Amino acid sequence: MVIRHIEDQGDMDLPQWKFLEELVCGLGQHGMSSDKTDGDEHHIIRVRRKPWRRNIERQLAMIDGVKKQWPLLFFRRQGPGRQDKLRDVLENRPVSKSPTPIGLPLAMFDRDWYKARTPYAKRSLQVSETQFIWKEFDWE
């Protein structure tokens, strides 16, 4: 839906958004940051760090910016009581306890983290042979 809207608008860089869609879909639910809501602040999500994942903070910030601009594109459920949630990315955030997903392309892993794995640990990740080409964009 977001890609279709961006195509219709014609004023945003479509290749960036196609890359973001491929990245987020490729990582899947288990590849995204773990979220924890703090106490009474149910509208704020505290993002947990995934040490195995390549740094995608700039890419996620780009998505967050567009969520603020066009919130209806990102939420299927609308109605009373629905609140937008803000991502709070702390510098010293806690590490996620969720397991490292298997079957991801090598480009989605943090290079240093992957190099530090034992050969057995690398095999157990079942790295996908599907090629994912990492693209750098000017995200400003």
User: Which segments are poorly predicted (pLDDT under 50) over 5 or more consecutive residues?
Assistant: none
Strand content: 5-15%
End-to-end separation? 23 Å
**Integer average pLDDT:** 79
Give the % helix: 25-40%
Provide the gyration radius in Å: 17 Å
Structural class, please? alpha+beta
Q: Could you state the order of secondary-structure elements as H and E? A: HHEEHEHH
Please summarize the sheet with the most strands: 3 strands, mixed
The domain count comes to 1
Backbone shape: globular
The order of strands across the largest sheet is: 1-2-3
What's the SSE blueprint?
Elements: H1 2-9, H2 14-31, E1 35-38, E2 41-47, H3 57-69, E3 86-88, H4 111-115, H5 119-124
Parallel strand pairs: 2-3
Antiparallel strand pairs: 1-2
Q: Mind explaining what this structure looks like?
A:
There is one protein chain. The chain is of the alpha+beta class and 140 residues long. The protein has one domain (2-124). 36% of the residues lie in helices and 10% in strands. It is built from five helices and three strands; from the N terminus they run ααββαβαα. A three-stranded mixed β-sheet has the order 1-2-3, with no helix packed on it. Helix 3 (57-69) links the parallel strand 2 (41-47) and strand 3 (86-88). Helix 1 (2-9) packs antiparallel against helix 2 (14-31). The mean pLDDT is 79.
